[in-house]
Amino acid sequence: MNRKVKSTYKWWIEYEDGSRAMDLEMSQSAYTLGFSNEKIIDAMADQLRTVSRVIPYWQEDHPSIQLTKSSIMDTGKWSTIQWSVSGTSAVEAAIGMSDHYHASLGNQKPQIISYTPVWHGTSYLTLGLSNNRRVWNSSRCVNIPTPTWTYEKDRHESEKQALVETEKEIKRYNNVGAIIFNPISYFNGIMPFSQWWWKELRSLCDQYNVNMICDDITACWGKCKEWHSYMSMGGGVKPDISALGKAITGGHAPIGVTVANQKIAGRLKNWTYGHSWNPSMGAIAAINKVTEITKKKDLLGNANWIQEEHDQMCDRLLIDGLIKSWRSYGCFCAIDLNKDLPKEHYIAKGLSTKYRPNVIKITAPLIANDEYFFDLEHALRELLK
Known about the structure:
It is a single chain. By secondary structure, the chain is of the alpha/beta class. Helix content is 40%, strand content 17%. It contains 13 helices and 14 strands. The protein has helices at 26-29, 38-50, 63-76, 87-104, 124-130, 155-173, 195-207, 229-233, 262-265, 281-296, 299-319, 343-348, 370-384, and strands spanning 5-9, 12-15, 20-23, 80-84, 111-116, 141-145, 176-181, 211-215, 241-244, 256-260, 325-329, 332-336, 351-352, 359-363. It has a seven-stranded mixed beta sheet with strand order 4-10-9-8-7-5-6, sandwiched between helices. Helix 7 (195-207) links the parallel strand 7 (176-181) and strand 8 (211-215). The model has no long low-confidence stretch (mean pLDDT 95).
C-alpha cells in the first residue's frame, strides 16, 4: 500500500501515518539545497507573478534569462546555450548539435557511442543510448560496456579496455559522430572516470573527428565540487558539448540546458531546437536563486568537506564490519554491502532510495552539515546491524 506524503523538508520525507524517511539520493541527485526550499519557491513565485512567459525564439528577452545564461556560460566558458524542458531533451539537443556540426562539414556521422548500462533519458534515442538490453534500442546507438570497478586499483585496466573497444567501434563503423558518457557512472554505483580517461577519450575524439558529449545532468552544479564536472575531474580536458539539468534548479522545477564550445557553436547557423514555452520562467528563477545561494554560502567548497565526511563515515562502517567497500566523489558515495538487503528492509528502517540489493547510493545535498551526517550514519547503522 502506498504511503501518503505529508511534507518534505531538508533531507526528510514525512508521511501521514507519522513516520518519516531519509532520502539517501535527494531524489536522484536533484535537491541539492534540500526539499521545499522556501527561498527557491519564493523566487519562483515572484517571477511567475510578474512575468511567466518569455520566448526567445520570437525575439523576446528578459533580465532573468540573461542572468541565467551568463552564469551557466561564464562558469564553464561555453560559447552557446540551448534551453529545453528536461534532462532527456537536453541530451537530445546535444545530439542535435553534434549532428548539425557534422552536416555543416558535409559529413553524415549518425552513430553515437555510449557506455552501458547508464541512464541518458526516456526518449526512444536516449533509451537506446542507456542500455543495450532494451528492446527499443535505436540503430544509431553503439553500446560499449561501461568500465566497472570496486577498488580504485582496478579502475585503470577497466577504463583501458573500454577505450580499446571504443577505438575498435569507431574504426568498424567509420561514421561515429559523438561519444556520450556520464562522468561519475552514477547508474553503476558511483565509479568516477579518472583524469587519464578524460585525456585519452579527448585524444580519440580529436583523432577521429568525434564530438565528446558529457551528460552532466547528474553531476553538475556543485555535486562534483565545481559548477561543471569537467572542471574538477577532467584534468584540463573539456567536452565539446554538455547537457545539464536536475540540480541547476535545486530540483524545484524541470528544465534542461545544453551548452557547447566554440568549435560547435561556430557551426550552428540555421539550427534550432526548442519547445513551446521554454525556457520556463519559473525554472529560470530557480536557477538564479540556486546559483546565488551556492555562491553566497560557498557550497562548492562544502562538497570537498562532504567527500571527507563520507570517507570517514564509511571507514568507521568498514572497521565495524558493516560494509564491504565504498567509493566517493564530492557529494556522491556508493557503499558495497556484505549481503543483499530486501527493499522492505530499507522502508522499515526509514530510508528512501532507488533500490539496488547490494549497493547503497548516496547523494548528499550541498547543504549537508554535522546534523545531516549524524542522521545518515545513524540510519545506515540501523539498516546494516
